[in-house]
Amino acid sequence: MSRKSAAFIEDQLVRILYNMDASKRPSVVGKRDERGAILLPSEGELTPTIVAAAVVSRLRRLGHQSPLLEQRLARLEAF
Questions:
Q1: Around Cβ 58, how many Cβ atoms within 10 Å?
Q2: What is the pTM for the complete model shown?
Q3: pLDDT tens-digit profile of 10-24?
Q4: What is the largest CA-CA distance in the chain?
Q5: What share of the chain is helix, strand, coil (3-state, %, to 5)?
């Protein structure tokens, strides 16, 4: 997926979710999290490993623990 299409998808998702009840509306993050910390680099190639690491890191921060995801990420990072 190109960066332009990712930005387009993120924008469309935010627009769709905007009209949801605020108590049920999920937080949408993209290149940066709610605090402004970088989730994905804005320059260079986004490899599957970079994206997977960002997703697993985000899930960890949200309290989701999955040994299976950790193992899969480790395998990706080993390449």
A1: 13
A2: 0.67
A3: 788 888 888 888 888
A4: 43
A5: 55, 5, 45
